[in-house]
Amino acid sequence: MDAGSLSAELREGQRERLREKPGEKAWGTLVKAIGLMSGTSMDGIDIAYVETDGQDVVKCGPSDFAPYSDAERALLRAAMADAAALIGPSSKREERPGCLAEAEAMVTQRHAAVVAAFLERDDLADKPIDLIGFHGQTVLHRPEQGLTMQIGDGVALADTLGLPVAYDFRAADVAAGGEGAPLVPIFHQALARASGFAGPVLIVNIGGVANVTYVAPGEPLMACDVGPGNAQIDDLMRARCGLAMDPQGAFAARGVVDERILADLLAHPFFRARPPKSLDRNAFSSQAIENLSTEDAAATLTAFTAAGIASILPFLPKPPARAIVCGGGARNLVMMEVLRQKLGCAVESAEAFGWSVEAMEAQAFAYLAVRRRADLPISFPLTTGVARPLPGGFLALPGHDTNGHDR
Ligand SMILES: Nc1ncnc2c1ncn2[C@@H]1O[C@H](COP(=O)(O)OP(=O)(O)OP(=O)(O)O)[C@@H](O)[C@H]1O
Ligand SMILES: CC(=O)N[C@H]1[C@@H]2OC[C@@H](O2)[C@@H](O)[C@@H]1O[C@H](C)C(=O)O
């Protein structure tokens, strides 16, 4: 079957479902999509269901999270170290040296299992899925060298699930001279527009790395990575206490910020660089906090993340009227408090607006998959630095090669 007849069959399936449910609102042009995100904190896989036209209409449904085991996380860390071998003028992003091939197979299989389990949910029983958005796991991000690598085999995932899969979303942007990240801003903009905020809004995502999106009526979408997120705090907690994170910021709350070390950390040239800009997970060293107590180190790293986020303020066209925080960092009470001090505006959790703290990125990749299918741009001059709005991602159809060619 070719790509055209497959999508015709999907469209027919969609009509069939609408016929079956006369009482339901006919979301004729909406695509039923699942988004999958394995973020830089490497804590696990977020999965979310979204119905969207890839533009203004976004209906978010159920979501879930599946943690990686310690062994899987160790394999991802080893893959990240092995990916560093690809840095250099002759590097090719298709290469999988060291344990990268094993890690990629694990990532693909775990995602397939997570989707299969998710589809068993009762609340998805009457929602046949049209499309999957598969981010994969970033193991290397060096846009200045034309290199960004997300492992995860989209073609294999499409075959395993028997569903179309959009994947490898960052490559086209980096190939066109962009930063390749962040990509979630166009989704943030859709949410913010639907909420009808009157003034400028700063959406702050605190995952492994922190990034922001600035949305203001009548102004172009603007976004960038802003500094470290939780990754260094997680590394500290794992190394010192065998914990996955600083729960609710409890360690940071008992510590004292080392202002000298904080100032040194903030002297990094990244914070003075104009956006667009993006970061590798391991861009910042944790050496400076090695001699501090765990509590003081956690307090200092938490303040570092919050100050990094605030460092974007001078680059914004107008001061934000409010900041909306998503990503796991929104669960860190100390982080939220320090952000309130540093941003000088109302700082609220995404949940205050009915948005998801945890599932936002997975939802975004469902939305971006739909944009891929519709050939709509996902990156923009003021989000990744790309010269003009650019679509991104490849589409794998079951039994077909990337972008629908028969195998
Ligand atoms: N209850 C909590 N208290 C403190 N920190 C938390 C809590 N829950 C989550 N976190 C932090 O959030 C992190 C996970 O955040 P998130 O899921 O947004 O990351 P991610 O998916 O890797 O994101 P990104 O791709 O944006 O880097 C955890 O590693 C942890 O540091
Ligand atoms: C290269 C890469 O994977 N970057 C991630 C990372 O995690 C947060 C921040 O750094 C952001 O730039 C991006 O992820 C989100 C999902 C994005 O593209 O918007």
UniProtKB/TrEMBL annotation:
Pathway noted in the entry: Amino-sugar metabolism; 1,6-anhydro-N-acetylmuramate degradation; Cell wall biogenesis; peptidoglycan recycling
Comp. bias regions, Basic and acidic residues: 9-22
Residues reported in the UniProt entry to bind ATP: G39, T40, S41, M42, D43, G44, I45, D46
Spans annotated as Disordered: 1-22
Origin: domain of life: Bacteria
Molecular function in Gene Ontology: ATP binding; kinase activity; phosphotransferase activity, alcohol group as acceptor
Record Pfam families: AnmK
Alphabetical list of NCBIfam families matching this protein: PRK09585.1-5
Family indicated by similarity: Belongs to the anhydro-N-acetylmuramic acid kinase family.
Annotated protein name in UniProt: Anhydro-N-acetylmuramic acid kinase
Gene source species: Beijerinckia indica subsp. indica (strain ATCC 9039 / DSM 1715 / NCIMB 8712)
Organism taxonomic ancestry: Bacteria, Pseudomonadati, Pseudomonadota, Alphaproteobacteria, Hyphomicrobiales
Gene: anmK
